[in-house]
Amino acid sequence: MPHTGAPKSASLTLVLMVASAAIGGTLQYGYNLAIMNAPTTFIQTFINETFLERWDIQLEGYQVTLVWTVIVSIFSLGGLMGALIAGPMTIRFGRKNCLLLNNIFLMTAALFAVSSRASRSFEMIIISRFLVGISAGVSMNVQPMYFGESAPKHLRGAISLSSAVFTAFGVVLGQVVGLREILGSEQCWQYLLASNAIPGLIQLVTLPWFPESPRYLLIDRGDKEACIKALRRLQGCSVQSCELDDILQEQAETKGLKPQTPWQLFTERAVRWQLVSIVITSSAMQLCGNDSIYFYASYVFKESGIPADKIQYVTIGTGACEFTACIVCNLLIERKGRRFMLMGGFILMTVWAIVFTVALCLEGYISWMPYLSMTCIFTYILSFGMGPAGVTGILPTEIFNQTARPAAYMIAGSMMWLNLFITGMIFPFLVSGLSAFCFVPFAVVCLLSALYVGLFLPETKGKSLSAISREFHKLNYKGQDGKRGSQTQAEYQLGEAPSSTTV
Predict the structure, then answer these.
(1) How far is CA 211 from CA 20, 248, 251, in A?
(2) Which of 163, 173, 222, 430 is least crowded, fewest Cβ atoms below 10 Å from its Cβ?
């Protein structure tokens, strides 16, 4: 079969597919994190005015803060709901169709948001944020799964990590659109909240043109012809036999097995340490406090001594830092490996959290300490982007097989969103209560996470999933090597590829 243009075609199709899926997927997560910071004051005023008009009640400051916190944090509860329904949706509709159907939640949310001001209803904002949270929860689970199952083995990490790059880009985009000069003004905040419909529309127009996940087509639907066609479109005119063999091997080893439920994973010893790994890393991703900085950037920078009129411009720098770091991580991950990037990111975050605490303590004594505090926030976010932001989402794809993967993503996503809700609720009170020591709890989380990764998480870079499975087997059945046969369900091979044969 001719090879002319194959690499170019593969690269172009894969890149366009990634962009189409991500612009209405994980980009939405970052975008919807960021846009809530700019209209904080305006929405709080709207809440107060609504209570005054309806019930002639003037809310106290803490009451307005409480309602605002509910509006912000309901996004996380929606995300938790989205993570729970993502698994069944991907099994029934497939990865690509699931992303397309997910836009129903997004468009409904945009409608509620844009109508809230005219309807004089802050409850519509709450509903909108809950629905957009569901949309983000689904996409955060489905998109990495779609990418991991569609990418060739040598690009699996880089393609999967692009989800984090688009998340960070969404943060920057949300911060820019949220400037007072654009949609962050008192007159336009309802349009800012509804602007997330635009990336969704772009996805609805473009994604139908791209193929479904080859692994889903062959393993879940048993359609070998469609699988080969999808592989050809994603990888060019010819398909490496090793890629097809990998999928055929996994199909053979999961034949007759039904998709597993989260409860089955919790009771299956053969995946115990895989499960522990994704629970710890997914929880640490939020308990480290990074995403809460985007929710409450005004609180953080005000505490750091930044003038109020400059905060909206400073916050753009936080998103730009993570975006830059995610791109660098994307370039390094196939060289340095997942374990190195993840552990290194958590260690650096621990260091910067400590320096930030010292800087806040000395602000009253040294004039330039506020600038050091601001620098620490940027380096903290930079360190997060270099490892935890992207690597965390790759792990379930690489350490679970096709039957367990949707349930694994449900568990990982649930932990991520549940912990985002917890940190989102307590963060403003943590800042006001602990003051200069507000980042100490996050430093502890980062240190403990780095220790776990260093001691227990195997490296997955460039390894077949059978090799990764064997390493986890040593942990799952430590001292009981004779029981290897009992973990057949969790073990699967992708095979080591011959490099030249094509089909």
Answers:
(1) 12, 18, 19
(2) 222
Q: For domain 257-477, give its CATH number from 1.10.860.10, 1.20.1250.20, 1.10.3720.10, 3.40.50.300.
A: 1.20.1250.20
352-363 per-residue burial string, b: 16 or more CB within 10 A, e: under 16: bbbbbbebbeeb
Cα–Cα dist 287/416, whole Å: 9
Residue 167 tokens read as 């998340």
Q: Which fold has domain 11-210?
A: Growth Hormone; Chain: A; (1.20.1250)
Per-residue model confidence as pLDDT tens digits over 467-502? 777 888 888 887 665 444 444 444 433 333 334 344
CA–CA gap between residue 360 and residue 40 (Å, rounded): 24
In Å, what is the CA distance from 117 to each residue of 53, 56, 463, 478?
A: 13, 18, 53, 60
pTM value? Answer: 0.81
Q: What's the distance, CA 489 to chain centroid?
A: 28
Distance CA 29, CA 49 (A): 29
Q: Which residues contact 339 (CB under 8 A, 6 or more apart)?
A: 453, 454, 457, 458, 459, 460, 461
d(CA 430, CA 425): 9
CA distances from 108 to 23, 96, 112, 116, 130 (A): 18, 20, 6, 12, 11
